[in-house]
């Protein structure tokens, strides 16, 4: 047992340095500082008091997750901020974090198809709007992440991630374009690319259905079916960068061929085209899109209800197959399919219960995502801030 208390003082000094390094990435609430620094909230509370007394840290009121809280920032450097960008088929969105408030999303419609240069110009215009409205100086923009509905390749350590294939660019009608390089030039900051579902999962962990969970899976039901896997508070990428693509988990080995080359993937059962077909087969006035299948189900249409229930059963199988061996306590489902509410959830839970049986010591809760279609851009802004705090 040390009598002079030096080891304790050394540990305290080391922890004070850790907190200052964390805050160098941008202002944050005390609870976020505890999460980022991996120190207990009680320890952080004590150390923050010391940093404030020493004059290193400034405290001001702010809002996180819609609640009033105290935002901490370093006094001796201007606060940087981080940008999330999403360029989707009909809309561009941007969101900023790192300035002591919840990310506010700014969006603009774009034509379909949209010229590449027009998409870039729209991003720049929206960022200028953020600056004018909220005092976010371009000089302090310290990084950006762009969300894309495409696979993103894991590259060697320290190298920037990159889009896998040209599917996204082709869907946008652009051909081969250096998206991240051009955005970086236009914005004057480093820009990296990330899969939109991974980012949506990150946003749900921060401020949505995944709050309080460090391990969960996220499944998105849409035109396509994507997903993300959060382990230990971080997006799990796997060996090739495409972990969490639950849409290509086989649920029916004798089922339909999938564009991915497989057969009977989850997407061939719960993707928009599959649900529209299942709900409308052989009848007049068939639903034309997923929204109509969902509204038909809610209005009591038997075929639409059956399509949603079957989708829930298939999703429940995949959740069971993933969450059971990983002992995940939460699965979050996002996308327009969740408009069916309990009808979908009941089917998912029924299948999950049957799948897991009595052997498993814990149950996996199933929740509907809370952040809607703003989740990817919110997650992109958070990811940009996280990259700065913990590169790689
Ligand atoms: Zn597939």
From TrEMBL:
One of its GO terms (molecular function) is DNA-binding transcription factor activity. It comes from the Bacteria. Residues 16-67 form the HTH marR-type domain. InterPro entries: ATPase_NBD (IPR043129), HTH_MarR-typ (IPR000835), ROK (IPR000600), WH-like_DNA-bd_sf (IPR036388), WH_DNA-bd_sf (IPR036390). Signal peptide: none annotated. It holds the Pfam family MarR. Belongs to the ROK (NagC/XylR) family. This is ROK family transcriptional regulator. The lineage of its organism: Bacteria, Bacillati, Actinomycetota, Actinomycetes, Kitasatosporales.
């Amino acid at each position: 047992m040390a009598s002079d208390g030096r080891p304790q003082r050394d540990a305290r000094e080391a922890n004070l340095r850790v907190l200052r390094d964390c805050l160098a990435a941008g202002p944050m609430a005390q609870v976020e500082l505890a999460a980022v620094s991996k120190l207990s909230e009680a320890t952080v509370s004590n150390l923050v008091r010391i940093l404030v007394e020493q004059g290193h840290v400034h405290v001001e009121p702010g809002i996180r997750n819609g609640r009033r809280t105290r935002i901490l920032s370093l006094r001796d450097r201007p606060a940087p901020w981080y940008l999330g960008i999403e360029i989707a088929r009909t809309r561009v969105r941007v969101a900023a974090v790192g300035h002591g408030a919840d990310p506010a999303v700014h969006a603009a419609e774009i034509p379909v198809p949209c010229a590449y240069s027009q998409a870039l110009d729209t991003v720049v215009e929206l960022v200028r709007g953020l600056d004018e409205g909220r005092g976010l100086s371009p000089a302090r923009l310290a990084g950006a992440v762009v969300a894309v509905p495409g696979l993103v390749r894991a590259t060697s350590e320290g190298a920037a991630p990159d889009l896998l294939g040209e599917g996204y660019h082709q869907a946008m009608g652009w051909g081969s374009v250096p998206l991240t390089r051009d955005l970086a030039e236009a914005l004057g900051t480093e820009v990296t690319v990330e899969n939109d579902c991974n980012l949506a999962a990150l946003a749900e962990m921060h401020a949505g259905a995944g709050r309080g969970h460090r391990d969960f899976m996220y499944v998105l039901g849409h035109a396509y079916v994507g997903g993300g896997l959060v382990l230990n508070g971080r997006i799990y990428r796997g060996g090739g960068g495409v972990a969490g693509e639950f849409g290509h988990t086989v649920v029916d080995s004798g089922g339909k061929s999938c564009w991915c080359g497989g057969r009977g993937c989850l997407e061939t059962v719960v993707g928009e085209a599959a649900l529209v077909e299942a709900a409308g087969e052989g009848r007049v006035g068939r639903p034309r899109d997923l929204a109509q299948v969902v509204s038909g189900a809610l209005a009591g249409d038997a075929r639409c209800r059956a399509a949603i229930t079957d989708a829930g059963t298939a999703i429940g199988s995949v959740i069971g197959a993933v969450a059971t061996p990983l002992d995940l306590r939460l699965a979050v489902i996002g996308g327009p399919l969740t408009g069916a509410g309990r009808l979908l959830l009941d089917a998912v839970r029924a299948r999950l219960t049957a799948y897991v049986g009595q052997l498993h010591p814990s149950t996996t809760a199933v929740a509907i995502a809370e952040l809607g279609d703003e989740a990817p851009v919110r997650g992109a802004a958070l990811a940009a801030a996280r990259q700065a705090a913990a590169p790689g």
